[in-house]
Design brief:
The complex is a heterodimer of chains A (354) and B (309). Chain A contains 14 helices and 2 strands. With 354 residues, chain A is an all-alpha fold. In chain B, helix 2 runs parallel beside helix 4. The chains are: A mainly alpha (354), B mainly alpha (309).
Chain lengths: 354, 309
């Protein structure tokens, strides 16, 4: 493959990953107004799940007597499992899909458990709790070697290995973009459903949503479970892309702050905004990384901090001068007046005849 | 098991420093009604200011407390005046304000790292995982910080009590907290009182920041690690009462240090990295059973119910 092709496939892959994560945040914050400052929790949770569970299960299936420990003899174990699934595409695909489902469930459970203590309180308590929980999960992943190898991390069986060679990156990209597309369609459907309208009613005015009989706590819980499940699938996909999991890869800046910048700058409340935001920022970051080495010798500090500075400033500028983002949320389409009158008429005649 | 002196000393120092951070956080929460996610970085900025002062000018770290107070105070004031006030004037809700503080947090983190890199590369100062314990003085065979931190902490809360109850401006601030529109009607400049609360909040974080390297190993990301303890302290205290925040700071600081110390002796040193679980756990217990914190519980009523039963 040529270098530009490799570059574009890589770019699309990363955009796809961040689209998944920022759309999940869009569901939570954009639709429902739940300030999830612990996006890292679900992303890392999904990744930790695929680092800890599927490999062990496969060792149990393919090597029940072997005495190889998945973490302690990680390299031998993963090499063996890779040999088993590399020759068998269907096993690879089943492994990939089941792991993603598992990661989604793990993310949903994490979202439910982590938000439970503060779900009934004002959103800021929830934000603080989720942020703290995310940091703790990272500490656990980093310090508990039995889980995912601690600070060393673990390698995991590679579900794209059967594709082989150069096409592996393409297969990973296609998978990630396909998941992103499914999530996009699903969230668009949610947006147009009664649930989506209830979520936005809750976001705009919690009290009036409650007055109309909506259980706000239940809605918030549901939103967080689904949002965290989607983000966990994003985290799992990232691990499959690199075929390894390490707690050191997950941090507050990349997995909480970035998605927030993408959602707010792109435009909260609509998925196209999340798409645009993720596209812009991942591309920008790629370009910065690409040209970084050129002005590295001229400044007495690491250029990466300049990037953080720009992101922070960009977010504040958008909040101050264009709070609706680049792609503003569209008002909900309602039926035209004639249709509503027709329905009212029909109901009235039915009522009088019946 | 006997209490070891170094452990108690560590606990008292940490609890004292934590009270300075948690009272500041609670003060701005009371005025502006936004949890400030950049609060840890106010302290970190002063850690590096003090580091530079100690190494470049040869000052004692204790003298750095004064410039640190003003430096971090100004950083907090910038957040309020340049970002939060325009957002408040436009009627932004608290979620937007929280995001703005997170964005400011990101900006400060990058500035802190740039400063750390700069000091390291140009002046060859150790700026990551460093301490200033070597610059501390000695007082009756104990490090001076063991005396200074608690005295400072008590002094600060006393001064805050005096300010909020005995001065005209402090009373005006309490009025602005309790009922902003009514306070405005009787001629209190709410913006001024709020801005002042941010300055004080940042300043207190600055004092804590100046003293922190005398006690523990510091790194540019220390603000985030402290933030969990600070939020836990404020929430345990009740988030709407600065004396509660003081109390919460003591509870969390002592529990965190003593708890980690004891558990590491009893279970094993592998428990040490899980230290932030203690403040988180106490915070979650508070949220579940007494979401309004220690000062929000009606103790008298609780006692009466207990006596009757």
């Amino acid at each position: 493959m040529t270098i530009p092709a490799v570059f574009f496939i890589d770019l699309l892959t990363i955009i796809g990953l961040f689209v998944i994560i920022s759309m999940s945040l869009n569901l939570e914050f954009g639709y429902a107004g739940v300030p999830n400052f612990g996006k890292l929790l679900a992303v890392a949770g999904g990744a930790f799940f695929v680092g800890a569970v599927p490999g062990r299960l496969m060792m149990f299936i393919f090597n029940p007597s072997g005495g190889l420990d998945f973490v302690l003899n990680n390299i031998e174990a993963v090499t063996m499992l890779n040999q088993v699934i590399a020759s068998d595409p269907s096993a690879s695909i089943i492994y990939l899909l089941l792991s993603l489902v598992g990661a989604g469930i793990a993310g949903g459970v994490l979202g439910y458990v982590a938000s439970y203590p503060a779900i009934r309180l004002r959103g800021d308590y929830l934000a603080i709790t989720l942020l703290a929980m995310a940091e703790i999960l990272r500490v656990v992943g980093d310090n508990w070697p039995e889980l995912i190898g601690g600070s060393m991390g673990v390698r995991i069986p590679d579900p794209f290995r059967w594709v082989g060679g150069e096409s592996r990156a393409l297969a990973a990209a296609v998978t990630i973009l396909a998941v992103a597309a499914v999530v996009f369609v699903y969230l668009e459907l949610v947006l147009r459903s009664p649930l989506g309208r209830a979520l936005r009613a809750m976001r705009d005015d919690e009290l009036s949503a409650e007055v109309y009989g909506k259980d706000v706590v239940r809605l918030r819980t549901k939103t967080l479970i689904v949002g965290c499940a989607i983000a966990a699938i994003g985290g799992a996909l990232y691990s499959f892309l690199t075929a390894s999991v390490s707690a050191r890869d997950f941090n507050r800046v990349t997995h909480t702050f970035w998605p927030w910048v993408m959602v707010i700058v792109g435009g909260a409340g609509n998925n196209v905004g999340a798409l645009v935001g993720a596209g812009i920022f991942v591309t920008l970051r790629k370009i910065i990384t690409f040209y970084k080495s050129y002005f590295e010798p001229f400044v007495p500090f690491d250029v990466v901090w300049l990037e953080y500075l720009l992101l922070g400033l960009a977010l504040i500028v958008v909040l101050l001068y264009r709070p609706e983002g680049l792609v503003p949320e569209k008002p909900t389409k309602t039926l035209i007046r004639k249709d509503i009158q027709e329905i009212a008429e029909r109901v009235r005649t039915e009522a009088s005849s019946g | 098991m006997a209490l070891s002196l170094p452990l108690i000393r560590d606990a008292i120092i940490f609890a004292s420093l934590l009270t300075m951070l948690s009272t500041g956080l609670t003060l701005t929460y009371m005025t502006t009604k936004v949890p400030n996610f950049a609060h840890g970085d106010f302290a970190t900025m002063s850690i590096y200011l003090n580091l530079a002062l100690v190494h470049l000018l040869g000052l004692s770290p204790y003298l750095g407390v004064v410039p640190s107070f003003f430096f971090s105070g100004l950083i907090a004031l910038v957040l309020y005046i340049a970002v939060l006030r325009p957002l408040l004037n436009r009627g932004a809700n608290y979620v937007i304000l929280m995001i703005a503080t997170i964005a400011y947090d990101m900006i400060l983190i990058s500035i802190i790292n740039i400063i750390a890199d700069y000091l390291n590369r140009v002046y060859k100062i150790l700026t990551r995982l460093f301490q200033l314990k070597g610059f501390d003085l000695e007082f009756i065979e104990q490090p001076m910080i063991f005396i200074v931190a608690p005295v400072m902490s008590i002094l600060i809360i006393s001064l805050l009590y005096f300010f909020l109850n005995k001065t005209k401006f402090g009373i005006a601030m309490r009025a602005a907290i309790e009922n902003p529109s009514l306070a405005e009607v009787i001629g209190i400049n709410i913006n001024l009182t709020y801005a002042f609360s941010w300055f004080i909040s940042g300043g207190l974080a600055g004092i804590a920041g100046a003293l922190l390297p005398l006690y523990m190993t510091c790194n540019p990301d220390i603000g985030v690690r402290l933030l969990i303890s600070v939020f836990a302290a404020s929430i345990v205290g009740g988030l709407t009462n600065i004396y509660g925040a003081f109390l919460g700071g003591l509870v969390i600081g002592l529990a965190e240090t003593l708890g980690t110390g004891y558990l590491s002796i009893m279970i094993g040193p592998w428990i040490v990295p899980y230290r932030p679980v203690i403040p988180l756990g106490l915070m979650l217990l508070t949220l579940l059973f007494a979401p309004r914190g220690l000062t929000g519980i009606d103790w008298r009523k609780l006692l009466r119910r207990e006596l009757r039963a």
